[in-house]
Amino acid sequence: MHVPAKFLGTQITGGSSSTIDAFEKMRIAGATAREALLLAAAAKLKVDKNTLRTENGAVITRDGQRIPYTELATLAASVSLPDDVSLKPRSEWKQIGRSIPKLDMVEKCTGTATFGMDVIQPDMLYATIKVNPHLGAKLNSFNAANATAMPGVKHILPLGEVGVAVVASNTWYAFKAAEVIEFDWAKTAYAQTTEGLFESAIAAFKESHQDSQNRNDGDVDFVIGQAGDATINREYRAPMLAHATMEPMNSTALLKNGQLDIWAGNQSPTFALAEAAKVSGISEENIRVHTTYLGGGFGRRAEMDFIVYAVMVAIQLEGTPVKVTWTREEDMTHDNYRPFAIARFQGVVSGSNISALDVKISSPSVMESQMGRVGLSIPGPDTTIVQAAWDQAYMIENYRVTGYRVPIGIPVSSWRSVGASQNGFFCESMMDELAHEANVDPIDIRLALISHSPTRKVLEAVAELANWGRMLPENHGMGIALVTSFGVPVAQVIEVEKTQNGIKIHNVYVAADVGIAIDPSNIEAQLISGINFGLAAAMMGEITLKDGKVEQTNFHNFDSIRMHQAPAIHCKILENGERIRGIGEPGTPPAAPALANAIYAATGVRLREMPFKKQIQFV
Amino acid sequence: MQLNVNGKQHEVDVEETMPLLWVLRDELAITGPKFGCGIAMCGACTVHINGMPARSCSIPVGQVSGQVTTIEGLGTPYAMHVVQAAWVEHQVAQCGYCQPGQIMSAAALLQVNPNPDDEAIDRALSANLCRCGTYPRIRAAVKTAAAKIRESNL
């Protein structure tokens, strides 16, 4: 049986695509296995296959005899498989739709799960790296005289043209020795400061940098021209963000007898294979990528730098396995970041209606930067620049969305929900502003613009779940946001309180439509995760650049949401969508605008720039 | 020098300034405690020293005296500690990397306070980061474990 691979034949965990990609394939695989067991049982019993059925791990004969699959497996492995099998209709599903305990849970709660960081090979050495903090520039020279004599140090090796690896008998010895190496780093040619980056985004708002205009309904210019001074002009900003996975980047590699073995938690084993072959000159059939558990991905581990660096070390120390672990500081300052972005809006309100909305978004291209690093080019526009801006369910009569591409400088990458992570904030905050200008309830103004039934239903469901419109305690405020990303409409209502010590986020209500909910508990977990990820960024996430280098180095200056700040999250999962969807990312985009809109409701302060901590304090 | 981990005595030959975490992980192959930040900001490396929670990434091994307990010493897959069992019951872990630290912090809290309110949970666990944002289930699991501990104390 032929099962087609994903786009470009890659194995990748990203784009919330795993569920969509695997759903039918896994069902076909299961149905084929069942068919093979039936054929095996028929052969064994010398009966017609059609007299047999399956139930709870066994083949059942017409007279009720029960043969467990375990007794048939060997025989089933040798039967010739049918070319096509019929899948169970939804009415007969037993497992799909049930919450099932996760197989990795006990390991992960007992410290016995093996993450990339936990890989141990016989006679392994431990290394760390120092790479040019001017990202993309080379290493001119270095002086490691002070480092070579440090305790535990075994080797100091060049790392391509960009840095140095310190190999020691213990990771900590490698860390300490790396600290005393003196470097002369080359500089980069792109903007050297945060202000410079935002200036490059402002400069890109012109025709020569236009990347896409996927929506141009009605006549936006005419309506805005008519409105004149009544036009509502707004500008929004989002900063760069680090992925900041809990497990810093690391990988272990060993070159022995022409065979290259790589151990790494990663989001794309096929990219790992290709990049390892490229850097080592070893052909792919002589490379094995052992994919371990990973301590957070969020897009970071779809990048291959941490694997490439481990391979660079391994091929210089043939026969010795080396685990290369980045310090948190190296990880934070050598990420491929969520791009900075600026959105400019012009809106016109007529009575209780939004009659025109013009959206212009300027940002570097994630696809150009990310695919460029694995040697691929993306022809045509990068729709992630306008993701979740042009493709929403709103039917505004005069509606235009234009993307502008900032030339690539500092490396940018996919960060959980990609373009939707900033555009959801921009567009749904603007929608709230327009609702207030029109003096219309923010949910009503949205419903008036949407006919797509599953999207209407998530709004209606979240309104009911949150009891929208209820009398709130003093100093409380509620905000709503609706973002469809990766095909999943997600509506969130956030309830905050203005306290003497700052904003306290009490409740998040969320309704999401995944089409088919395979495992409700896991979907709930992903929604909770996506929301907290989005809240952390909205509240405090910011990567800044100074003297060409990233300023944030660790969790003291790039913190995340913590237990005392984490709200109660109430989930409603809907299944009205046309097809099954993935839920790893769609929970993230509405969190920031729902929070901003709630803060506006509670305080009257309109937040147009992330992170909000620049303007407002949180408990 | 001598180090007692999970009831077992080890002889280690390292610099005294080496943080306990790196002795556990790279010298003794005890990899349950995780490296996250190296500056006691994320809690992934949390172990118990004489029953008290400690960030092993920031404690020089030369200053450790007494019993070190890691997640592996708290319970095992076949004999889980009540906190670990509650974590499994609530399906807390996602990527799972921070959870050994979360569990060690929770176990230490419940040792001294078997009936923590939300504020006490906040105080004890806000030193532990979780980038997957599993906090609601962590809170629920702490409460379940606390109830079990109180029941068994009756």
UniProtKB/TrEMBL annotation, chain B:
Pfam families: Fer2, Fer2_2. Residues 1-74 form the 2Fe-2S ferredoxin-type domain. It comes from the Bacteria. Keywords: 2Fe-2S, Iron, Iron-sulfur, Metal-binding, Oxidoreductase, Ubiquinone. GO terms for molecular function: 2 iron, 2 sulfur cluster binding; metal ion binding; oxidoreductase activity. This is Isoquinoline 1-oxidoreductase subunit alpha.
